């Protein structure tokens, strides 16, 4: 019986792939995925919707001065959006690309609600925390850089994902986007196709 158990354990060890995860690279991937999710949410906002925002200035009659700005540039609205953005990470999984064994994370579902077609191109990493570290990393990034993210949208800056993940936070400074932005991890194209329709 002991021999059978040892032989079984030996075979299991051969079939279960132990994957060492670079936690800094994982955090970089989470940062980029988080910004992709924010971009997807922002792209659904009608740019013609305006909101009144006030400040502490008053006119000569003592009335507060208001101005109208696009909802997309509203600090309060962007902050509200960021409050629940990390829940989207529950739909993401860690994986390694089959052709080069590089770490990736991706959403199991497309914006249309179907299974992600990239699933056949990766080996999913099964882990004990059920990918809760993805949501944890996302929450950490949002908490630490929320003001910076809001400024990126209020000031309508280009390439917000790389500005935040590489220039502002330095989370991805050692991980060029080209390494992560190939066909196996190109969630951007899924969101762009959805918004262009």
TrEMBL record:
<dbReference type="GO" id="GO:0005783">
    <property type="term" value="C:endoplasmic reticulum"/>
</dbReference>
<feature type="region of interest" description="Disordered">
    <location>
        <begin position="175"/>
        <end position="197"/>
    </location>
</feature>
<dbReference type="InterPro" id="IPR042415">
    <property type="entry name" value="CNPY"/>
</dbReference>
<comment type="similarity">
    <text>Belongs to the canopy family.</text>
</comment>
<keyword id="KW-0732">Signal</keyword>
<feature type="domain" description="DUF3456">
    <location>
        <begin position="27"/>
        <end position="172"/>
    </location>
</feature>
<feature type="signal peptide">
    <location>
        <begin position="1"/>
        <end position="18"/>
    </location>
</feature>
<dbReference type="InterPro" id="IPR021852">
    <property type="entry name" value="DUF3456"/>
</dbReference>
<feature type="compositionally biased region" description="Acidic residues">
    <location>
        <begin position="175"/>
        <end position="186"/>
    </location>
</feature>
<protein>
    <submittedName>
        <fullName>Protein canopy homolog 1</fullName>
    </submittedName>
</protein>
<dbReference type="Pfam" id="PF11938">
    <property type="entry name" value="DUF3456"/>
</dbReference>
């Amino acid at each position: 019986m002991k021999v059978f158990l040892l032989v079984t354990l030996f075979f299991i060890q051969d079939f279960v792939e132990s994957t060492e995860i670079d936690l800094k690279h994982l955090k970089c991937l989470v940062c980029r995925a988080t910004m992709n999710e924010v971009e997807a949410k922002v792209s659904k906002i009608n740019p013609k919707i305006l909101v009144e925002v006030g400040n502490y200035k008053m006119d000569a009659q003592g009335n507060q001065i208001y101005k109208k700005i696009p909802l997309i540039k509203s600090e309060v609205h962007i902050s509200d959006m960021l409050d629940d953005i990390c829940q989207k990470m529950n739909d993401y999984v860690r994986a390694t690309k089959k052709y080069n064994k590089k770490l990736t994370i991706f959403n199991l579902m497309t914006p249309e609600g179907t299974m992600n077609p990239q699933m056949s191109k990766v080996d999913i990493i099964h882990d004990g925390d059920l990918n809760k570290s993805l949501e944890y990393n996302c929450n950490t990034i949002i908490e630490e850089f929320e003001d910076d993210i809001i400024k990126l949208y209020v000031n309508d800056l280009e390439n917000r994902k790389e500005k935040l993940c590489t220039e502002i936070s330095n989370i991805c400074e050692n991980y060029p986007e080209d390494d992560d932005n190939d066909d196996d991890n190109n969630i951007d194209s899924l969101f762009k196709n959805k918004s262009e329709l």
